[in-house]
Amino acid sequence: MQVTGNNQHSQHTLSIRISTDGFSFYVFCPQEEIPFAVFHFDLSDEDIPEYMQKCFEQAHLDAYVYDRVYTLASTPSTRIPLEDFRKDEADPLYRLTFPDTAKTDKVFYNILPHVETAELFSLPSDVSTWLCRRFPDIRIYGQYSMLLERLMGIERRSTSCRNLYVYLEDKRMFACQFRDGRLTFANTYMAEDRTNRLYFILHAWKTLGANAEQDRCILLNASSCQKGMAEDLQKYLRHVVTPGPADLFPRLSASHIPGMPFDLFMLLTND
Fold first, then answer.
1. For 80-130, what is each residue's pLDDT tens digit?
2. Domains of the chain from N-terminus onward
3. pTM score
4. What residues form DSSP beta bridges with 39?
């Protein structure tokens, strides 16, 4: 994606992924010939907000006017039913769940109305301060917030069988299940190799009492993250499917863009 003279009139969306080992800028503009661009930076010894600003400028991303700006926090997260959620309890509850959270980190939460759940996550306070000052209208989301919202919509159109959704990432995976319009299971597993992933998926399947002959295991992001996972699972489960964004949302043009991370695509469907 090149900076063009008419970029002031284009509809650019900036998404910023913050993780423990670095950050990435994603620029999406459906009017461009190449509508999607990625700029990744590993952490350095520099002050993080200053380094992010420098990287932002070096990538010439300040040449665009952005209609929407999102942050996707790839940090530890937990969920609580809305009926039990209290705003003033979000910070102590998160720190109780993740006791190694730095005292200076800021705890955020997303209300997920379709899932009837609040997702809690955190960001370094200096990073969140820079983001909010640099982009006053920024929307900050936990990594799995929009994923859960969109999967709930898919689930409501599903058949009578139960689905175990597994979102594969480079070093971990996220599994969830819905029943009767509610989120009944959600967990993150730190696992890189196929053997460990297979074990965790089958353990979750057994714990949830799923039927190996009837219910489905739906692997998300399988084609770009870990090939061969579906074949491994099919030795034990009859129904293993690996849909891409275009299979789930065929009418959305962004779903046909190669290389777009699955969770980022879910974020871009927010509006």
1. 999 999 999 999 999 999 999 999 999 999 999 999 999 999 999 999 999
2. 1-143 (3.30.420.250), 155-246 (3.30.420.260)
3. 0.89
4. 25
